[in-house]
Amino acid sequence: MGNGLSFFFDADVTGVEVERRMIAELERTLASAERTRVPAGTRLVSHGDVVDRIWIVLEGEVQLTREVDGRRVVFHQQTAGRLVGLLAMARNEPAYFDTTAATDLTVIAVTLEELDAALRANPILDVHFVTVLLRSLARRHLRAVELRVEVDRLNRDLAEDRDRLRRALSELERAQTRLVEQDRMATLGQLAAGIGHELNNPVAALLRAAAFLTEDLSGLADDFGGGTAWGFLHRALDRPPISTREEREQRRALATGIGDPDLARRLVAIGITDAGEYERRFGGLAAGELEAALAAAERCHAIGLSLRNIRSAADRIGGLAGSLRSYARDQSEMTLGVDVREGIEETLRLLGHELRGIDVVREYGPVPAIAAYPGQVNQVWTNLIHNAARELAGQGTLTVRTAPVPGGVQVEVADTGPGIPAAHLDDVFELSFTTHGGRVDFGLGLGLRLCRDIVERHGGSIEVQSVPGDTRFIVTLPVESPDGPEAP
Amino acid sequence: MTEIAILVVEDEPEVRDAIERDLAPFQGYFRIEAADDVADARDVVRELATEGIVVGLVLCDHLLPGTLGTDFLVELHGDAATRGARKVLLTGQAGLEDTIRAVNEAGLDHYVPKPWTAAGLQGTVREQLTEFVLEGDVDVLPYVPVLDGPRLVAAAADRGWEGRRT
Amino acid sequence: MYSIERMARRARLVVTSRRRLGLVLGAVAFAIPFVVDFPDLSEPGHRAMAVFLLAIVFWVTEAIPLFATAALVMFLLIVLISDQALWSLPGGYEAPPFSSIYGALAHPVLMLFLGGFFLANGAARFGLDRSLARVVLRPFGDSPKMILLGVMAVAATFSMFMSNTATTATLVAVILPVIASLEPGDRLRVALALAIPIAANIGGIGTPVGTPPNAIALAALTDAGFEIGFLRWMAMAVPLAALLVIGAWLLLVRAFPPSCASVSIRIDAEFDRSPAAWVFYATFAATVALWLTEPLHGIPATIVGFVPVVVLLGTGVFKARDLQAIQWHILWLVAGGLALGLGVTSTGLDRWLIGLVGWDALPGWLIVALLALVATAMSTVISNSAAANLLMPIGLTLAMSDAVAVDPIRVGFMIAIGASLAMALPISTPPNAIAYSTGTVSTGDMLRTGLVIGVVGLVMFLGVGPVLWRLLGVS
Q: What is the DSSP secondary structure assignment for residue A259, as one 8-state letter?
């Protein structure tokens, strides 16, 4: 190898220098080294071609690219080197890359035979050639390692981004659920308030109409001499309601008094419960007259009864409408001087239909007025009482306690239902479900988590204790909300 | 000839009054009894039994103080004396589960949602009592004017007038 | 106030007390002949009288169901007066074989009736009654009076072959919606409700299978050796029955003038065209044709009556459940009457009873009239069949005795007719009960029209009948 090898190991000799020397040697050795100009964009070698020559690039740059998944990826440009096709030829395989002129090139094309002849003719060229080949390989290898490192880094970045996105997404979802729930509650609240207001007029009209009817009918009765039958209108209006059991007892008693169960039934129905009164009013009448008098009395009594029922039904609707209004007071306004007991009472009233059969015990201790969003706080009571009512399923006791605590109030909603399984106890505020009768139920969606959100927004806390037969939700609210929480 | 009773179980007096008023066409043909809770309804059933009167139809609200309407219907269904009574839930508040239970365990015959109409309620009562009268060992002819006349008349002829003049 | 509650309470009391009374009375009546010795009445006659008295009390009070009394009568006759009697009977008495008493259950006339049941039940099952009613009523238009006539014609015709009760039930079901659509004050409501049972009761007279009293008369006459063919019965009954229906129509139109201008009757019925239905229609037509042509082929109606039984069962058109649905209790009731007749005549009780009265003082027509009148009166308050059962043996024996000179056929026929003409009370017949149940007819309305039609009918059959029959050559 002589001194030629010194090139190979001489670190002072740059790759460019080696290449330059090799090209010079090659040009010198080859008789017919013809310089060719190649315009930019020309494809020198395509992937899969059999490489039968090399190109010595004297000026310009080439790109080594490949088509990957329909996209063209550049693998080497700077690192391509000045000898194109050398590696493929050395491997004696079809070309791996597409080789394209990145700029205008000046190249010398050397066929395999010419190269072979040149290498044989000039031994120093052989050393140059191997050196260039090795350096070229080393360059490419280095480039591969760099690529690998880059891919690793990119993957890591990608995973981080993915995790961040996932977290963001689930947070968004939770926020959205919460917003939807809040929005729904707010919408429902507005709807309820709207209905409450809308009901004002019809209820007022109904109540007034019932009063007018009573008045006019009474007047009519007086105009027509106020026959005995009209008295039954007032009797029906004024008669306190009695239980069906009492009514049956009255019927039995009267039947033994007058000896006719059918007649007794009719008499008690119009409020005559005493044989003496029957004698005074209807005694001595012939059968036909009795029937007529009784029928008239029944008709008047029926009118009175209907009036009374209209009145009490309208009263109830009015009461419910009032409750709806105050229950669903504007949700976005922080109000001072809120008495939690009032909100609880409204809620109990609105949920009255769910509480039938349930003993409701109120243990209201003296509590300070607090600053709160009344509409939102009422949602908490609604949620807790609704859950308790479903848990109790028509029997048992619901206890609502209020008590002062330092700097706030404590409200406890307790039921004697089957309780929340211990396994679920930690989750009740997390997931948007309610449990009742040991079952998981997404029910009305008045999630307990919503309660917790509201309570926490007020700077309070909510906790649960449950054993079968005694489940307590304990809400603590401060007298003053700490940060004037923003409106939902 | 047996007397047949309609039992109304409803806790709100206004609603009870309205139901009883809508049942007026059946007055005179059937004993109409009302109860404001399940305990009272049980008493009524007991008292009727001592008078030899069978319960033909129970119109029952669902949300009642103490015991739920559905539970009462299940109870009636379990008792041989009241098993044959037609059972109707008249309610606005029974959920799907309660209703399913009433159908499966109480042999619920019909469900009337509140608010009801007089014609609807009367139609249901007429239909149910016709069924009851036809199922039972009852002389059906007296009920022709108030129940499903053509069906009763046809059934009367089919029954072969046992013990009646031929 | 029309209160079922109250009526029920009272009815329950009445029924239970009547039943209790009936049981006690029946036992007492049964005991009398065993305690009291009636002169000139044989020992078997005493025993038969005990059974006869028991039957009277039980059938009148309905202490036990009618068919149960029939079964009891048969049993008592077997153990008291048959050749298998449990207590010895005096020599010289010719005891009827016990099998002849059981045999009443398979009497040829009952087989005729059974055939009638098959036809009637089939007609109901295939809706033939409704679809025919639809077709027949169409030509009567929509004038209230014509509709009324149409309904009566349909009822009368149907009840000739179907039971009066089934006919009434079918047609009342048809007219209930019509009644409901009329103004409450429209008297046509009453007329329609009354017309159906009246026409059905009268129509039942028309054929031997029309109503059980006819079968009782036919069977008793057959046993006594008198044959009336199907066609001859119809020739005697149908013309007068038709006249009576028209008369009843005139009466109803006069008494309950309709106030509406037109009425429409809607019957939802299509002819059943299934193969089974066709088999039934053919059987029905063939049976009726054979009944009506008896003089031509000479096959007795009692044998023809078994044809639908054999055909409908043989072709599988009638199955076991259809056989179970046959109104067997009516056949049992009739059989009880036949057995009672057998007991009364074979023990000489009938002759002894007749001997109590000096009949020879009375003209024959009066005796027939009296028997028919008694039949009507009894049937007004008790079952027509039971009344016929009780009267038939006495009447026929009387007719055949030397004391009087009347035609036994006319006696048997008139007892049956008399029983059918009883329609003055809701309890007189099931058709009346059904009409009353519509709630549109008062007892007073029913009583007045029923009495008039009953009396007019009796007069027609007693007075016009013999003349007409002589003219027709069926006397």
A: S
What is the band of A317 on the pLDDT scale with cuts at 50, 70, 90?
confident
Q: What is the pTM of this model?
A: 0.67
The owner of tokens 């709806």 is: A324
Confidence label for B43 from pLDDT (cuts 50, 70 and 90): very high
Average pLDDT in the A51-71 region? 82
Return the ∠ at Cα C164 (arms to C159 and C165), rounded to 5°. Answer: 140
Does residue A65 sit in helix, strand or coil?
Answer: strand
Stated as kind and residue range, the H or E segment containing A43 is: strand A43-45
Residue that finishes a domain, picked among A133, A148, A163: A148
* CB pair distance less than 8 Å for A291 and C5: no
Same domain for A122 and A27: yes
Element (H, E) at A105: strand A105-111
Cβ neighbours of residue B111 closer than 8 Å, sequence gap 6 or more: B88, B89, B91, B94, B99
SS3 at position A30: coil
Chain C residue with Cα closest to B32: C5
Q: Which of C77, C61, C158 is nearest to C383 (CA)?
A: C61
Helix ranges restricted to H, C256-327: 275-292, 294-297, 301-304, 306-314, 320-324
Lowest mean pLDDT among A117-126, C186-195, C232-241, C445-454: A117-126
Q: How far A252 CA sits from the closest chain C CA (Å)?
A: 16
Does B63 sit within 8 Å of A394, measured CB to CB?
yes
Asked whether the predicted pLDDT for residue A437 surpasses 60, the reply is no
| Contact (CB<8Å) C168/B1 | no
Q: Which amino acid is at A180?
A: V
CA distances from A215 to A223, A233, B159, C273 (A): 12, 11, 57, 68
User: Domain total for chain A?
Assistant: 3
- Interchain proximity C6–A262, CB inside 8 Å: yes
Range of the domain at B17: 4-158
Q: Are A291 and A211 within one domain?
A: yes
Query: What is the greatest pairwise CA distance in chain B?
Result: 53
Residues from chain C contacting residue A262 (CB–CB below 8 Å): 3, 5-6
CATH number of the domain bearing residue B65: 3.40.50.2300
Query: Of B18, B47, B63, which has the smallest distance from its Cβ to A353's Cβ?
Result: B63
Q: How many domains does chain B have?
A: 1
The reply to whether residue A243 touches residue B40, judged by beta carbons under 8 angstroms, is: yes
Q: Cβ neighbours of residue C223 under 8 Å, at least 6 residues apart?
A: C338, C341, C342
CA B29/CA C427 separation, integer angstroms: 20
Distance between CA atoms of C345 and A434, rounded to whole angstroms? Answer: 90
Name the residue range of residue A371's domain.
Answer: 330-478
Q: How many helices (H) and strands (E) does chain A have?
A: 14, 17
Q: Would residue B150 count as lying in a domain?
A: yes
C13 to chain B, closest Cα gap in Å: 10
User: CA A430, CA A416: separation in Å to the nearest integer?
Assistant: 23
**Contact at CB, B150 and C383, closer than 8 angstroms:** no
State whether residue A262 sits within 8 Å of chain B by CB.
Answer: no
C330 CB neighbours in chain B (<8 A) are: 160, 166
Q: What is the pLDDT of residue A328?
A: 64
Q: How far is B156 from chain A (nearest CA, A)?
A: 28
| Angle CA C130–C131–C132, to nearest 5 | 90
Residue C77 to residue C70: CA distance in whole angstroms: 11
Give a yes or no: residue A180 inside a domain: no
Judge whether A234 and A224 are in contact, CB under 8 Å. Answer: no
Q: What is the DSSP letter of C460?
A: I
Q: Do C437 and B142 touch (CB under 8 A)?
A: yes
Size of interface A-B (CB pairs under 8 A): 47
Chain A nearest-CA distance from B71, in A, is 11
Phi, psi of C278 (to 5 degrees): -65, -40
